[in-house]
Each structure stands twice: as structure tokens, then as C-alpha cells.
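Notebook p. 47: complex prediction with adenosine-5'-tetraphosphate.
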Amino acid sequence: MVRSFSGIQPSGDLHLGNLLGAITRWVQDQHTHDAVFCVVDLHALTLPQDPAVLRERTVSLTALLVACGLDPGACTLFLQSHVPEHTRLAWLMECTASFGELSRMTQFKDKSARAEFISAGLFTYPALQAADILLYDTDVVPVGDDQRQHIELARDLAQRFNSRAGQDVLVVPKHVIPPVGARIMDLQEPGNKMSKSLESPQGTILVLDDPKAIEKKIKRAVTDADNEVRFDPEAKPGVSNLLSILGAATGRDPSALAGEYDMYGPLKADAAEAVVELLAPIQARYAELVRDTGTITSILHTGAAKARSVASATLARVHDAVGLLPPG
Ligand code: AQP
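Predicted complex, C-alpha cells below:
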């Protein structure tokens, strides 16, 4: 079976971009792939985190992923820090990546420009991400468009590692980016992607926002003055973003949807209604799950044990290929 692997950071509240760009595809993949999904808590530490908040967000993100439709019986769902092979393979990936390659990562450039303290971890994090993916002999990585460059790096590192080892030790993965919803933009600043860590409360729709907040945010979304509804992300980023949201939420093509509107008001009303409908069942399931921390902990422990059985075999193969002696 084709293996699908992806991850998400507990670095902030889950937003509509995460759901439409990645998680919707994860939910589909668990029925057709050998699907492995990881809450990448170590990645969140690349920027300063309050320990109590990180703990709370890790539990709530796991509950939300289950509420979005991930079934721990159908996929492997676990926490990155519970599987020590991730950091162990990350070191070997850091020794495979070049300084120049990591310096070219646009996410590093963006985040380091905003950070007061630029950790070494922020710089090397794509090597840890490559390790996350490569540990599971991953074939496909369903992600939003912003992760394209990092997945290409993971491919390059796998190929370089194999070529140095003179054998196919690591599986070379491919990214899978959805045709609609791959880059949901901030509603107030449609030049920026919707993001957990950007301070833009009015521009970000959270998966747990109530219907009134969703309607208000979409109603106030930045568009432009000419009132022409056309799907053209370059020339009309705000309107195109609303069409992408409506399209991804209803399974329709944004360009085709554009032909059904001649004013922004009705488009905004329909986009808000579609998002409210999409999120209502997720919010109801989440309200039940989040109180049951025992179940969440048990899901994560079971997931880590399953993940470790694959990860430890890959790491042993990699250690052997580079000449490290087996322990014990
Ligand atoms: N705006 C977006 N549109 C479509 N997909 C998106 N993703 C993130 N933002 C958008 C996808 O969500 C998955 C999980 O993201 P992540 O938390 O691992 O990393 P991220 O890309 O760094 O997400 P954020 O929300 O921007 O968080 P911060 O601000 O903490 O970095 C990924 O597949 C991502 O592509």
C-alpha cells in the first residue's frame, strides 16, 4: 500500500488553511493509503513557546484532528517527541544537507525576519522535517503549497544519501498538493498566507470560530474596488481567495464559481455559509473529545508504538549504511 505521511505543528490554533490545504486530504488518504500523521511538537520549539500553552495546544490539536475525521483505527496518529528516532535521523539529515540549501528556504527567511531570537533550530528545521518523512519510507506527503520547497529538499536529501551510500536506503517521497485550497490567504492581507503564527485575528478563520465570528470575518474580508468577480489570484487576490475558500469547502472549481456571481456581497454570504456548514460538525465532535484527555493520551501512546516499529527499522538501516555500529 502507498504510504502517506504528513505533520502539523501545535504552534497555534488550527485554521481554515490547515484544514483545506492539508487535513481534508489526510482524512481521505487514511482509507486508501497506509497513512501516518504526526503532531510535530518539536518543530513548534523552533520559536519560543510557553510550556503550559504548548501542552494544552498539543492535546487540543490532537482532539481537533480526530474531530476533523482522522480515525486512529484507520491511520497512525502520534506525537513527534514520543518517537526519538526523529531527532536521531535529523542529525544525519543535517550532515547530508548543505548550509547553502538550508539558507535558501523561504520559510526560514520569512520567519527569521520576524523573529526576535533566531534559533539554530529554525534554520535546521527542514532537516528534521526531512527525517520525519523519510523515517516512514513515505511515498506521498499531502501538504499545502507553502511546504513544496521543504518536501523538495527532503527528496534531494534522500537522493543524495542514497547516492553516497551506493544503495537505495531511503524512499524518495513526492508531495501531493490539492488543486483547490492549497494556499488559503489571510482575509485582511491577501498577499500573505493564512497562518497560525501571524498576528492577524481578523484575517484568520479558526476551525473553532463560532458562526458569527466567521460571518463577520468573511464580510469584512479585503476585496477591491471594481466589484468584478473573477478568479485571478495575481490581479484579484482577495476575491480569488474567497472563491478558493468557497470552492474548497463545497468541492467546486473556483473559476466556475466566479461565473455565478456579479457582486461581492452574495459571494461573501455564500462563502461564510459554506464555511459555517463545514466547521459545525467538527466543532460538535471536538467539544465532546477535548474533555476526554485520557482517550487523547491513549490514542497518542498507541500511535507512537506503531510509528516506532517502522521508524526504528529505518534508522537501523540508515546507521548501517553510514557505518555506525549497532548498539548492544
Ligand atoms: N494558508 C494555508 N493554506 C493552505 N495550506 C496551509 N497550511 C498551512 N497554512 C496553509 C498547511 O497546513 C499543514 C500544517 O501546517 P504546519 O502547522 O505544519 O505548518 P505551517 O505551514 O508553518 O502552518 P502555519 O499555519 O503557517 O503555522 P506557523 O505560522 O506556525 O508556521 C501544512 O501541510 C501546510 O502546508
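Notes: The beta strands are 3-8, 34-39, 76-79, 140-142, 174-176. The radius of gyration is 20 Å.
Next step: compare against the earlier run before touching the bench.
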